[in-house]
Specification:
Blueprint (H helix, E strand, L loop, with lengths): L3 H46 L28 H25 L8 H16 L12 E3 L5 H11 L4 H5 L33 H18 L10 E6 L6 H4 L2 H6 L5 E7 L14 H11 L3 E5 L6 H6 L4 H8 L2 H9 L2 H7 L5 H6 L5 H5 L8 H13 L5 E6 L24 H10 L6 H4 L12 H12 L34 E2 L1 H14 L7 E5 L10 H6 L1 E2 L19 E2 L5 E2 L4 H12 L1 H4 L5 E7 L4 H13 L5 E5 L18 H6 L4 E4 L4 H17 L5 E5 L5 E2 L8 H6 L1 E5 L8 E7 L4 H15 L1 E8 L2 H17 L9 H6 L6 E4 L5 H4 L9 E4 L10 H8 L3 H14 L5 H10 L13
Length: 893
Amino acid sequence: MRNTAPKDAAELEALETREWLESLDYVLQSGGPTRVGRLLRELANHAQRKGVRQPFTANTPYINTIPAAEQPPFPGSREIERRIKSLVRWNALAMVVKANKAEDGIGGHISTYASAATLYEVAFNHFFKGKGDNHDGDIIFFQGHASPGIYARAFVEGRIAAEKLENFRRELKAGGGLSSYPHPWLMPDFWEFPTVSMGLGPIMAIYQARFMRYLEDRGLKKRSDSKVWAFLGDGETDEPEALGAITLASREKLDNLIFVINCNLQRLDGPVRGNGQIIQELEAVFRGAGWNVIKVIWGSEWDPLLEKDKDGLLVKRMGEVVDGEYQKYAVESGAYVREHFWGKYPQLLEMVKHLSDEQLKKLTLGGHDPVKVHAAYNAAVSTTVQPTVILARTIKGYGTGEAGEGKNITHQQKKMNEAELRAFRTRFGIPIADSEVAKAPFYRPPDNSPEVTYMLERRKQLGGFVPRRITTTEPFKADNLHDCFTEFEKGTEGRKASTTMVFVRMLAKMLKDKEIGELIVPIVPDEARTFGMEALFRQVGIYSHAGQLYDPVDMDTLLYYKEAKEGQILEEGITEAGSMSSFIAAGTAYATHGINTIPFFIFYSMFGMQRIGDLVWAAGDSRTRGFMLGGTAGRTTLAGEGLQHQDGHSHQFSLAVPNLLSYDPAFAYEIAVIVEEGIRRMYVNGESIFYYITVMNEQYEMPPMPADVREGILKGLYRFKASAKKDSKLKAQLLGSGAILPEVIKAAKTLEDQYGVAADVWSVTSYQELYREGHAVERWNRLHPDQAPRVPYVRQCFEGTEGPIVAASDYVKALPDAIDRWLPRPLVSLGTDGFGRSENRAGLRDFFEVDCRFVVLAALNAFAREGKIDVAVVQKAIKDLNINPEKPNPAVS
């Protein structure tokens, strides 16, 4: 009798559950899924009001999101598409194997594309839209490690010659080769976006999708059904940039955005989440962020098994297994899978007793099933109001067999022996003889073959080939461009202004210009008021796809916070990475959209190059055009903020980016000349360059532009003021840049008035340009020994000058030191090596030894070293200038 009550209770609970499920089935049949959803929400709310507390979950069961009954018919020929996919697989593998046979260690990746082939082929044959006469084309961020597969498909299409494939990762060989990963700088007619610095592709894709909406909302581009696709790996989502901006996509309702995450459960060294389930983890993250999540886990062979799973035991078992164990199933036998997966519950063993071990082993995963993948893509492109992420379960190295399929070593797999190649060839039906297979030859069927005919027709129907980078924009007509900048040549006529204020005034004028105004894209990461840009809120508005659904608290003020659907400013919030991604989107719009937008991205300089250097490098690779403005720049110019905010080294970082031109202007006319020339070079001449300009918040009088200095400003150096003391025996050359140039001007006056030194003042607008030009001249001379040597511009400037050369900068001494080798005499560098401090400007410049007093001291000390003045003069100067000779070294204190 003791066991009767529990048994009765269990039976009663099972009966109740069955009645509820039957009731729910009735509602589903009579009212449909929408009614069921409303009912479940009402029940959940009712239970919560009654005190029932359910643990939160954003997960759905570990099964496909789209039931088999809701799959659309597959529109193509599955057999021909299977053969095409097999050909691409073979050529991708052969490319890497041949490259490493020819050059051991040249690298390459087999396993990523092997796992993602179906994901790509279904998209190529049915979804990716090319840039044709009737369509703008999709924007596609290909997973970098899958590049061999993308090249292989282009080869089968007839777009890339076999010779190029032979030179995979050997770009410098005769005839040219193929870059390792997507690099528009290296293959400007093929790749559009660099993606292999993992995490950057996803964030750039999000902001590309938002920028597409921006162009449409502002009337610069017609609305279209173009999509932005981002392909990435599950391991890649550990990068902060990969998931850090996903709420922007849902907040902005970017239904033009589709993420495809290849969940092969493996990263470079081992499992992504060996003790968990990465698909479930990502589902929760994306659903919580408001995305439409489509899971593609199980292939079609699983459908009848799931149909038989009336009590949900199979679904339960699917959710119990951790990824490390799923990975184990991929490399073990069917008997192992039967015992360890199905064998946990007798009912499941009974369910599959009709299947052999071999059949169990061959049960396909969703990411390898074109029907399942097509259904997911079809749902994704049809989704409105929210972005979509597809979580596709695959096996890393799929098809490579014993060479690495599903194994931890598969990411590093570069080579295959003859037996492994033969097995791969046979598995995918490639018509290559046994006698040839060891050579891993490329194979392309004839042009009139069913495979080539089919794939070319599909691409024709979809608008053309992808990937393909096309530049169709017309150059600017810059007849009246100079009018935007003429006022800045006059100076401020006694008024004080900072270079930041000058730039903002310049930007406001450009925004009003009839020729380029609508193409200007101001980008700011929540620092517009810091930079004095709030007047632009009212002038052009802050972009918001939703417009402004509220009355701002400062509505009654002149410069209120104005959001508008047609707003021009991209106010990105506190995200330099997001802002830089917008900069890249706007700066590549000339190629992506055929629109010459001109981005001006202004940011706290300390949080630019140092924080988002990887994205800056990607901008260079992408052939981005535009202007980056490092605001509140300079180690001693930004008062009070201290160590984390004071930038004294961003120009060192920018020097490393080959197509980034960096300037540190001091005066209004210098900025005007640089910006005007930049627009001309990028948007009239079409050069693939972009600019970094530092601007400061220190106010001083801006002088009028001297005659004949334009060329020197652009080259990086010109004589700002020659000394009037022509007959002085002591002469000095003083170099200054940015906000330290006024200190150098003061030092020149002190040297002249108190020490009788004729000091010429030079403005150095760009040490980087001087450095590059100097090395370019040296290289030319080295390669042309039989010709008259050329003279670097720096050397030309100082030919005929006399006296010590002293350079003072608000940046580390390595910056001015970069030009020392081309000077006629040794350079004395003053700079801001070391950590910043919270202090006023005078205190900071004393601490870092870059104010006018230290410039004077440096010149006098140089004279003493040369024996031109007595050391006692220098000692007295130290005392007179109130310099503490025993003060701590700022570089290490």
